[in-house]
Amino acid sequence: MMIGLNRRMRLTDAEIRKRIHVEIIPTIIGDTHNRVIDEMGICCGEARVDIAVINGKLHGFEIKSEADTLERLEGQILAYNQVFDTMTIICGQNHLDSIISLVPEWWGIYSAKINFGKLELTKIRCSELNHSVCRLALAKLLWKSELLMLLAEAGVRKGVSNKPCRELWKRVSEIFTTETLQIKVRETLKSRECWRLDLQQT
């Protein structure tokens, strides 16, 4: 009976997501202030990572269930590589060989399968640190009010409040080093309220 059950059940995104929250995320959050965000938009909405964890690093988790295709993965890889300090992809076993060949070596990989009626996640490889984060992409994670606040901290107050976001992103990415901007973006995102107020991005 169990063998038949294993064959009939197909893993869904929701099932894998729930297990990530229960099994993987607790291993990377510590006593410091953490923020966990489902469906976090990046690169001005060009991509949306399934789960983001923000603490001392910006961690991304992407899910490719058995029912998913990999059509969007190439574009997602390009977007995620610009922003996340670490990335982990969790996939159904039907995608595993393709995933291994497609994602960068610094990405972590888990396979997901049903074993005797229960969802199992198996670590294929650990994630490593991304050394190619893009300052402009990091700046694009911030709302206009947040960009203005960072510029004010750097002593830039005059003639910026009426500028569009695209100019503020560029200015912020030029003023701050990558390491400093990573810290400031993480702290800003952790303290942000009302995440879905996209009007703040004007």
Which SSEs are present, and which pair or pack?
Blueprint: H1 2-8, H2 13-24, E1 35-42, E2 47-54, E3 58-64, H3 73-83, E4 86-92, H4 96-102, E5 108-115, E6 118-125, H5 135-139, H6 144-153, H7 165-175, H8 178-191
Parallel strand pairs: 3-4, 4-5
Antiparallel strand pairs: 1-2, 2-3, 5-6
Description:
The protein has 202 residues and is an alpha/beta fold. 38% of the residues lie in helices and 23% in strands. The chain is built from 8 helices and 6 strands, in the order H-H-E-E-E-H-E-H-E-E-H-H-H-H. Strands 1-2-3-4-5-6 form a 6-stranded mixed β-sheet, with helices on both faces. Helix 6 packs parallel to helix 7 (165-175). Mean pLDDT is 89; it is low at 1-8 and 198-202.
Largest sheet: 6 strands, mixed
Instruction: Find the count of extended strands (DSSP E, 2+ residues).
Output: 6
- Taking pLDDT < 50 over at least 5 consecutive residues as the criterion, the unreliable ranges are 1-8, 198-202
Q: Which structural class matches the secondary elements? A: alpha/beta
Oligomeric assembly: single chain
Order of helices and strands: HHEEEHEHEEHHHH
* Order of the strands making up the biggest sheet: 1-2-3-4-5-6
User: How far apart, in Å, are the first and last alpha carbons?
Assistant: 56 Å
Number of helices: 8
Average pLDDT for all residues: 89
Shape: elongated
